[in-house]
Amino acid sequence: MIRRTAFGAVAMTSAVALLAGCAGGGGNADDAADGPVTIQVAIDAGLEPEARETFDSRVAEFEDANPDITIEAQEYTWTGTTFAAELAGGTLPDVFPIPFTDGRGLIERKQIADISELVAKLPYADQFNPNVAQAGEDADGNMWAVPIAAYGQGLHYNRTLFEEAGLDPDKPPTSWDEVREYAKTISDATGQAGYATMTSANTGGWILATTVNAFGGRTENADSTAPTVDSDEVAEALEYLHDLRWDDNSMGSNFLYDWGTINQDFAAGRIGMYISGGGNYPNLVTQNALNPDDYGLTVLPLDGADPGVLGGGTLAAVNPKAGDAEQAAAVKWIDFYYMGKITNEDAAVASAELSASLDQPVGAPELPVFDQELFDQNREWIADYINVPVEQMAPYTDQIFDQPIIPEPRVATQEVYALLDTVVQAVLTDEDADIAALLSDVQAQAESVYDQAQ
Question: Of 3.40.190.10, 3.40.50.2300, 3.40.50.880, 3.40.50.300, which CATH number belongs to 152-312?
Fold first, then answer.
């Protein structure tokens, strides 16, 4: 998912220094354009004024160095239930983010532009983490969409609610039994939801799949030829939610959360714990005015025979309706805006310095788009400007690289997530929901979706 921008979430920082340090993208755009060109680029909806100021500063830097390219911002937030209509209706900007889960399908259907020849000329094109790169590649390994952020799921928690409930915020839960225990303690002591989960706009299936992975199961078989949603591990994850909801009464009263609304309630202090992408902190701050003192982050407990943490990320894609000049300018923008802060020291420092001066988050947890060495190097470059509460994130950052990362299901991902939304909603709204029957029904529907997709 993109939250997520996973979804999840799209990092919105770069710097003009990239234009010198990463000349490949710039050269491509100049080669393709015969004159001035204008492109529309995505910007998150509902940004705080300071975050919008950061974005506008980036645009000014880019246009100063590229006088033949004009950037127009278009508010856009990826949502599983609306994306297909936006794609079909031609309302997407020229450059827009998509979740890893959508990459392969859009490429196979040629619903995004083939920018692979332009991307191949970028100086870092052969340095991507292969586990990350595959999300934006076609079957032959050509990169149609550029990975700009990657994440492993984490357990976000409210330190203030922990303290109000008599829990130590420096000692978050390390097992699923403790998550349940802490959730009830928080709910009983504060009246807020001790634990909440997403359930709508395909996010219910996303978080259920995450929980299933942490319990040692999978929602797709090893060769991605069939769904495996009717399994003991999926039933166990649903029974766990059922017990939190009905036995403990520790999940509050909202059972129709999506990524945006659960972020809102968490930032407002109405949720003790929830699962989302480990790099979600910037979105919580810039879009939901989270108080940093409230924030805590830890890894998911892992249980079962073969557990792991679901990983995903965000790709930057180009509208297939964009012409050659627009596509070249788009890759130049992706190169500048998204990649510079990762690949180039001057760009990384300039980006971090500007973001920090505007009180924007610098240094939130993420997984390497390239390799661990470059990730650590990048952290050294920006060390003086990191302003996120790193000690409050240490339970996550100290352990996430030791957790097995499980990629999201590769076939009909969003379609199956949507089917699982209905199951999660049923379990949380009907105490007598028949989990076995629900999963049997969804398994049959998912198999049909797989048959159509392959």
Answer: 3.40.190.10
Q: For residues 30 and 99, what is the distance between their CA atoms, to the nearest angstrom? A: 29
Q: What pairing do the DSSP bridges indicate for beta strands 146-158 and 295-298?
A: antiparallel
pLDDT at 132 over 90: no
pLDDT average, residue stretch 352-366: 88
Same topology, domains 18-151+317-373 and 152-312? Answer is yes
pLDDT of the residue at 31: 45
Stated pTM of the model = 0.76
Count Cβ atoms below 10 Å from residue 383 Cβ, excluding itself.
Answer: 12
| pLDDT of the residue at 5 | 35
Helices (H), 66-112: 80-89, 100-108
**Would you tell me how many other CB atoms lie within 10 Å of the CB of residue 301?**
18
Domain residue ranges in the chain: 18-151+317-373, 152-312
- Please, what's the b/e burial string for 261-280 (b: 16 or more CB within 10 A of its CB; e: otherwise)? bbbbbbbebbbbbbbbbbbb
Whole-number pLDDT of residue 34? 56
pLDDT of residue 339: 94
Rg (CA), the chain: 21
